[in-house]
Write a structure and sequence with these properties.
With 412 residues, this protein is an all-alpha fold. The chain contains 17 helices and two strands.
Length: 412
């Protein structure tokens, strides 16, 4: 038996998923501690219920996915529109070195995934799904590449597989970073735990870690309201990104420059943002872009999770867990022997290693939470709180997209 829902009902169900996820996150501490996105916590519950319904009755639910692509493109456009190249100069040489370390890790992570998938007799593309597509890229990238792999390369269940891997990564990234950094700090005697009095002074001192994060997320100016005028300006920027993506997708079809549409949306955002910044002196409203982007991601993930067919993943459960377990060990070893040593073998390097674990298998909020757990005990690391959000917020998404395109072309 098959039951289909129109776009309107799909949007209603997506909003209900988001409300359920919000309620679960509010009442379950585990979801808050590990920064599990609300669409994921609510969507996985609903996906499990749909799975149980299918197993009991054979009923299959089909949701309209037309809007899903549009919301995905809005999210990736927001990443590009946030990429102000002036921030690259703020990070200095440390940011450049850290970017190089993360680029090397992308190849390591994908090498581990592809290698194990091949040894286990699976499609090598599954190794990329259990690699930087989901672990470094997160849920948004998982869904975007999952759609590409399903439609263009015939990898059935890639989206469901990606969502599962990305959720696993969020949890492990949050568990791994803090203990690893503490081990490095104590082993190399890099800092002493702060007393309660020192922590209280730091919390009330300008320039502490919390302010560093806040300064990254909001400009150091008077608050700017998201008015109707600001919303229209922001929508115009997103419309430009989507138009650029559609044009470039058509223009490069069948050429060496052919890329997934969401990569062009991201690239279009980078071009539009920096042309406006440096060519016309137009001040882009970052907070409005963030609101639209996060809303787009939330609705996209909700629809994607509604469409999950968990029964398609049953035979991959064992091999997938083996790949993810090895990926966890690989990240820990890389953070200790490459990230920590390359970034200077000092206290800042240990905090950066914690941040690397956060978004190496999770997301930028997980990375920031890892670093805050360390700095609240041992003291501030302004270098880490400048570099990690810059890398995790947009630079790594841009680099990861192009590396994945090269690797998929090589595997196929």
């Amino acid at each position: 038996m098959h039951l289909s829902f129109s776009a309107y009902y799909t949007l209603i169900f997506a909003v209900l998923v988001l409300l359920l996820g919000k309620w679960l996150t509010r009442h379950i501490r585990f979801l808050r501690d590990f920064n599990i996105p609300e669409p994921v916590s609510g969507g996985l519950v609903v996906a499990a219920l749909i799975f149980a319904l299918h197993q009991a009755t054979g009923l299959t639910l089909a949701f309209a996915t037309g809007m899903q692509t549009s919301f995905m493109l809005v999210f990736f456009s927001s990443i590009g529109l946030s990429a102000n190249f002036a921030k690259l100069r703020e990070g200095g040489m440390g940011l450049v070195v850290f970017l190089g370390v993360i680029v090397a890790f992308i190849f390591v992570q994908n090498g581990v995934g592809v290698g194990l998938a091949t040894l286990l007799g699976l499609d090598p593309l599954i190794g990329l799904v259990a690699g930087s597509i989901t672990l470094l890229g997160g849920h948004g990238t998982a869904g975007a590449w999952g759609s590409v792999l399903e439609n263009q390369y015939g990898l059935s269940g890639a989206t469901a597989l990606g969502i599962a891997c990305a959720t696993f990564g969020l949890v492990i990234g949050g568990l791994l970073g803090g203990p690893l950094a503490k081990r490095l700090i104590t082993r190399h005697q890099l800092a002493q735990p702060r007393t309660l009095a020192e922590k209280e002074v730091s919390e009330h001192t300008p320039g502490n870690d919390s302010s560093q994060v806040a300064n990254f997320e909001t400009p150091n100016t008077a608050p700017r309201l998201i008015t109707a005028e600001a919303a229209i300006e922001t929508l115009a920027l997103f419309a430009g990104c989507l138009a650029f993506a559609e044009f470039m997708t058509s223009a490069t079809q069948g050429t060496m420059l052919q890329l997934p549409t969401f990569v062009w949306a991201l690239g279009g955002g980078v071009v539009i943002r920096n042309v406006l910044d440096y060519g016309f002196g137009f001040k882009v409203f970052d907070r409005a872009i963030d609101v639209f982007g996060n809303a787009g991601l939330s609705i996209y993930l909700a629809i994607a999770l509604l469409s999950l067919k968990l029964w398609e993943l049953a035979e991959l459960a064992g091999p997938l867990m083996l790949i993810l377990a090895v990926q966890t060990v690989a990240l820990a070893l890389f953070a200790v022997f490459i990230t920590f040593r390359t970034m200077g073998r000092n206290y800042d390097a240990a905090v950066l290693a914690a941040g690397h674990c956060g978004f190496g298998m999770g997301a930028t909020p997980t990375a920031v939470a890892n670093m805050q757990a360390i700095t609240s005990q041992y003291g501030p690391s302004h270098k880490a709180f400048l570099i990690v959000p810059l890398v995790g917020a947009f630079f790594i998404d841009i680099i990861n997209a192009f590396v994945l395109q090269l690797m998929i072309a090589w595997l196929r």
